[in-house]
Amino acid sequence: MDDILNDFLTESSDNLARLDADIVALEHDPSNTVLLNTIFRTIHTIKGTCGFLGLVRLESVAHSAESVLDWLRAGHLFASPDVISDILRAIDVIKEILAGLERTSTEPFGDDSALIAALDAWMHDEEPALTTVVTAMTTASSNPATRTSGSDERRHPNGDDGGIADASLRVNVAMLDKLMNTVGELVLARNQLIQIAGHDEHSLYHTSIQHLSRITTELQESVMKTRMQPIGTAWSKLPRLVRDIARASGKQITLEMSGATTELDRQVIQAIQDPLTHMVRNSGDHGIELPEVRRARGKLSTGTIRLHAYQESGHVVIEITDDGAGIDPVAVRTKAVERGLVRREVADAMSDRDALNFIFEPGFSTASTVTSLSGRGVGMDVVRSNIERIGGTIDVRSTAGVGCTIHIRIPLTLAIISALVVGVHKEMFAIPQTAIIELVRVTSTTRALVETVFSGGANGQDAQFYRLRDTLLPLIDLGGALRIRGSHANAEEYNIVVCQTGATRFGLIVSAVFDTQEIVVKPVGRRVKPLECYAGCTILGDGRVVMILDPAGVSTIAGVQLDGAHAREMTSTSCTATAEPAEPMAALERLLLFDGGTGAQHAVPLSRVARLEEIPVERIERADDRQLVQYRGALLPLVPLTTDVGLDAMLGPGRTRPVIVCHDGETSLGLAVHEIRDIIEDRITLELASERPGVLGTAVIAGRATEVVDISYYLAQSRVVRPSTPNAAVEEVA
Fold it and tell me: What is the pLDDT of residue 167?
């Protein structure tokens, strides 16, 4: 059933449920104007929506009843029992039409002329022929060909009793928030039980804890869905905004929106409303040109702003695109040099994409004039801060004279997130998984890759960089940044957590790396809230309270913004400069390189990967002629990359196997591979197409012929249907 019609039936049923009692109360108290106005508004709302949906019969009956009620409000008519009776008969017909709409999604046929004539007669000081009305009403009700039995009127198509109104319930938002907090406490209790006895397979409580974990996960997902809202609710003000911009600037602008039904947690939607408004305002005010300018450039007079949203790997991606003048990278470089953000030779060596990131600097603008509406770039630092505060990233791509696209990637929810738990000296911290790119272990053999240079920062201290492949990665000693005794920057061996916030990539030096966990985000106290390095706190399974780090805040207090620019400068000067190709190239993308078992190199975009795991062989189980592993409270199917090497052959006795865990919102699977080789940034340009299922083609990546794997193929092959029986002991992952 159409969503608009469904919402109309739900709202109308809620209103009509109170209407009978209100009208009877009006009969006993005809002078109650408040009650009369309430009844009139209910019928008026139904009538107004009928015209929008094209429900002619329902609109006619509602209009006649509304007219009588309007005469009662004006004092031209007295609410006598006969008048009330005719209004109640009209409401009965409205209910009958709504019931037919619910059954068939189409308006049922019926002759309401006698009823409408009786209602209209009250407004002409005529006494209606009540007998005729009653007879006509009875003949609609008694014909078995046109009326179903009372027990079937409000039966669902699946056989359940109750109508659409019975299938939904209005719940206060505060109650949902309280329920979410309670589920969060349950998740913490579940984690504590798993910490105590969940890993001991011989424990008396192992099976019960596994069952509790599965139920808790399902309950958590269900409660989170109740907080989900379509992102279109954050777009509701944008059409009016674009119209006002067009009229104020003399431009012709159209706004196109797609993916408005993509759902997000209401807390995330509230956080992105202001950034979206600001970016659309910038596109309309300084992106779209005047009609005469567009015509001179060979464009249509009307400019277009497009908003597109979709889900991808547990995130929501929002793209704001305009076909305006774009952002001139030459102007950006010039302004950056003028403001002292970068030296001229370094700016000239930068790629256009890197140069565009300067628009996120505070107060940065290339606009020659600042209008009352906006200034191109003014406030973009606040936009980025708001996006990164909720664990998101923002990227801008533009071609001068063609247009601009802003790419935003944000998590689905903020209440329960996946985080990596790390240790610094005797303290533990949680880092949101969305900000982590990879992990690097520094040993005595790789210590030479760490370089110490003068940072050029305000503190005048030397800075450390790690030569990660072809770039210099700024390093932050987390213990030193947080003023924790026992810095590990000079230790022989330590770990580097490679993080990225926006365009800034850096490494956090930590002493220990523990496991990834689903953690419940708790707000911090008033005294801690001003510290921008913390995004909240959580409670681990052993009862310890740990702080959740905000990687963007940590980079700010450590001054990595300056160090990052210096790293780009060093990288650009240490490498031989080459001219950019004239033909457009594929965008750089983070890729996971691995050996599927045949010795050949394979690659998959890192955005399609949820996690990398090492699965012990003893945890592998066989059921339904497939290999499965109990993973995070559910069953995860394991599939080999190729049938040439079976999974049994790959998983020898006493060994573990790397598993690439993938998830698309409906299906989860573990792709069993032979070896994880590297994570790199490269462009995917397919040189040869492939007819083999599961392979998109062959490309040259990192200097080797590489098969690009089609993860969607394996997810489609592993997609299964949940059992429909309520007492199913085990549910497969879907």
Answer: 60
Is the CB of residue 488 less than 8 Å from the CB of residue 479? yes
- Alpha helices (H) in 329-472, listed in sequence order: 329-338, 344-349, 352-356, 380-389
Whether residue 699 contacts residue 682, with contact meaning beta carbons closer than 8 Å, is answered with no
DSSP secondary structure code for residue 286 in this structure: I
| Phi, psi (rounded to 5 degrees) for 568 | -65, -35
Q: In which residue are the tokens 């030779």 written?
A: 345
Q: Is the pLDDT of residue 113 over 80?
A: yes
What is the C-alpha to C-alpha distance for residues 283 and 321, in angstroms, rounded to an integer?
8
> Taking 60 as the threshold, does the pLDDT of residue 108 lie above it?
yes
Residue tagged 């949906």 (tokens): 53
Contact criterion met (CB below 8 Å) for 461 and 477: no
- The residue whose two tokens read 């989900």 is 228
Query: Which residue in 285, 283, 300 sits closest to 249, CA to CA?
Result: 285
Q: What is the 8-class DSSP label of residue 290?
A: P
Burial of 727 (0-12, 13-18, 19+ CB in 10 A): exposed
Please answer whether residues 249 and 373 qualify as being in contact, where contact means their C-beta atoms are separated by less than 8 angstroms: yes
Tell me how crowded residue 52 is: count the other CB atoms within 10 A of its CB.
Answer: 10
* 192-240 confidence digits (pLDDT tens): 787 777 566 677 777 788 888 888 888 887 887 787 888 888 888 888 8
> Dihedral of the CA atoms 438, 439, 444, 449 (nearest 10)?
30
Residue 293, phi then psi, degrees to nearest 5 = -70, -40
Amino acid 560: pLDDT: 65
- Closest Cα partner for 120 from 180, 174, 66? 66
Query: How buried is residue 59: exposed, middle or buried, by Cβ count under 10 Å (0-12/13-18/19+)?
Result: buried
Quote the crossing angle between the two packed helices 3-28 and 33-53, to the nearest 10°: 160
Higher pLDDT, residue 247 or 521: 247
Domains (range + CATH), the chain: 3-167 (1.20.120.160), 173-226 (1.10.287), 230-411 (3.30.565.10), 416-574 (2.30.30.40), 589-718 (2.40.50.180)
Q: Which residues contact 215 (CB under 8 A, 6 or more apart)?
A: none
Helix (H, G, I), strand (E, B) or coil at 57: helix
Measured distance CA(354)–CA(397) in Å, rounded: 10
Tell me the pLDDT tens digit for each residue of 328-378.
888 888 888 888 888 888 888 888 878 888 888 877 776 655 555 554 444
Nearest to 64 by CA among 15, 23, 115: 115
Q: Which pair of tokens denotes residue 157?
A: 């198509």
Provide DSSP, 508-532: EEESEEEEEEEEE-BPPPTTTTT-T
Give 655's DSSP letter: -
- Tell me how many degrees the CA angle 40-45-51 measures, rounded to the nearest 5: 125
Give the helix/strand (H/E) hosting 421.
strand 416-424
Helix, strand or coil for residue 314? coil
Q: What confidence tens digit (pLDDT) does each residue in 426-469 have?
A: 889 999 887 888 888 888 888 888 887 654 444 445 678 888 87
Is 589:540 a contact under the CB 8 Å cutoff? Answer: no
Residue 326's φ and ψ, nearest 5 degrees, are 75, 180
Q: From CA 112, how far away is CA 133, in angstroms rounded?
A: 9
The DSSP symbol for 287 reads I
Q: Is the distance from CB of 499 to CB of 508 less than 8 angstroms? A: yes
For the chain, give the mean pLDDT: 76
Distance CA 64, CA 421 (A): 67
389: number of Cβ within 10 Å? 15
Q: Which amino acid is at 588?
A: L
pLDDT at 301: 93
Per DSSP, the three-state class of 542 is coil
Which amino acid type is present at position 332? V
